[in-house]
Amino acid sequence: MSNNSTTESxxxxxxxxxxxxxxxLVAQLQxxxxxxxxxxxxxxxxxxxxxxxxAFTAEENGCAIAVSTLSSTGAPVIQNQQEGSAxxxxxELIECDITFYGPEGQRYATRxxxxxxxxxxxxxxxxxxICAENGGDITSSFETTDxxxxxxxxLRVRLNRKTVRLYGIKSLVETPFNLIGE
Length: 182
Hints:
alpha+beta; 19% helix
């Protein structure tokens, strides 16, 4: 078993708490979308494996969020080398598909798209260590569930963040060496 540092062989795992992922990331995004659009928090849900439109009646406004892509932008960098640790910095691109339902779906989609440019909204998103790159086009289509056809409006939003993981990478203080030769 490794001591989780480079003083012994074995795997290294981060020593610090990491950026949020999975349900915790979607929960942050739900707060963000609810805040910018004005939709009640209960009307901003995580997209599920089944059709999410069944979560809303044809008369209800709401939206579902899915993190569709989580990719690295560039190579990771080792920074802030200390005696007993170093940080691995990586920049991530988070693409979110946000689907708006209800009779005012386009209105809420445009509120979100335009709200991405307001500095106070940007500051609030920055509290999660995330920044908005852009909001794309809003595409409208129809979805049929239980023989009810309804319009849905989809918006893809690109977000960026820097993740920092602390590893037990010890700095090289001295190196033993032998001189051989004359």
